[in-house]
Amino acid sequence: MEIAAKILNGDVYAASMLMRAVEDEKQFALEELGLLYSHTGKAFVIGFTGPPGVGKSTLIDSMVGAFRKKEMTVGVVAVDPTSPFTGGAVLGDRVRMQEHAMDRGVFIRSMASRGWRGGLSKSTISMIHILDAMGKDIILVETVGTGQSEVEITKVSDTSVLVLSPDSGDQVQVIKAGILEAADVFAINKADKEGADYVVSRVEFMLGMRKFKPEEWKPEIVLTEAVLKKGADELADVLLRHKEYLKTSGEMDRRRRIRAREELLKNVESFVRDFCYQGFVVEQYMEDLVEGMAQRNIDPHSATLKIIDWLSAHFKQISSH
After folding, report:
1. What distance in Å separates the CA atoms of residue 293 and residue 54, rounded to the nearest whole number?
2. CB 110 within 8 A of CB 78
């Protein structure tokens, strides 16, 4: 409870400590998150995704500056690739965002994906809640960059930005069945390079194939040069306009209900998985079911029901842990 109270007062050290506890899956972290939850839902969460090498980290760095000029506080959750040596994050994002390190209005957290699907991390949503409870106005979330599966970013953010560049022109076709349909804003980074016009034309063509209702938001395309911080202010303005659209149209509430449902289902899934693998389900019992499936003596659905029955029968034992 003491940690939660400090975070609500903007304590950076307490937030960092809880974030580490979340990643380490400490039991007390769940209790502190529970205390914080009623204080969340105020921040505007923006997800940045796109193919590797398009400059997402550099663009987010420039976006931090753009929002700070508007006197808005900013939190960043940067999901980095997992180090093959330590299992932790390869802290490329921290290196690129050093100029904001001393700004008390900015909090940057790099974390490892640890193989989690969609270029995100299992702890991403919890990190967002912590930053939200701290009182951050804007929370920027960056994925690792894995391609089509990055549609997962739409499940943790209010607004999704797909970052492309002339280098990713050939990949537009590859990912069009995923995030291209879900993106609210397109940022064409490295717009000074040859081929930027081609990427814009391809995105415009694909958007032209979609039907939009008169009152519906049509994704906007913004040209940026993140290294020179060009286009950041324009992109910030577009994102804030989209926020207003979400609020006035009722789309914000709809998206957040979808996110709440998704978070609930992921927690249920994680709960069952954790207790199956942490010894609460007797190992031999699990192994007998696995062997039965391998020998085709029991089907996966029936084996699953047996696990659910076991969890139900031992619920008090489970909840006490």
Report:
1. 44
2. yes
Q: Which fold has domain 41-248?
A: Rossmann fold (3.40.50)
Q: Determine which helix (DSSP H) or strand (DSSP E) holds 227, and give its type and residue range.
A: none
Cα 169 to chain centroid, rounded:
24
| Strands annotated E in the chain | 44-49, 74-80, 106-112, 138-142, 159-164, 185-188, 220-223
Buried b (16+ CB within 10 A) or exposed e, 203-238: beebbeeeeeeeeebebbbbbbbbeebebbbebbeb
DSSP, res 300: H
Domains of the chain, by residue range, sit at 1-39, 41-248, 262-319
Cα 99 from Cα 93, distance rounded (Å): 12
- 160-194 pLDDT, tens digit per residue, is 999 999 976 566 665 555 677 789 999 999 999 99
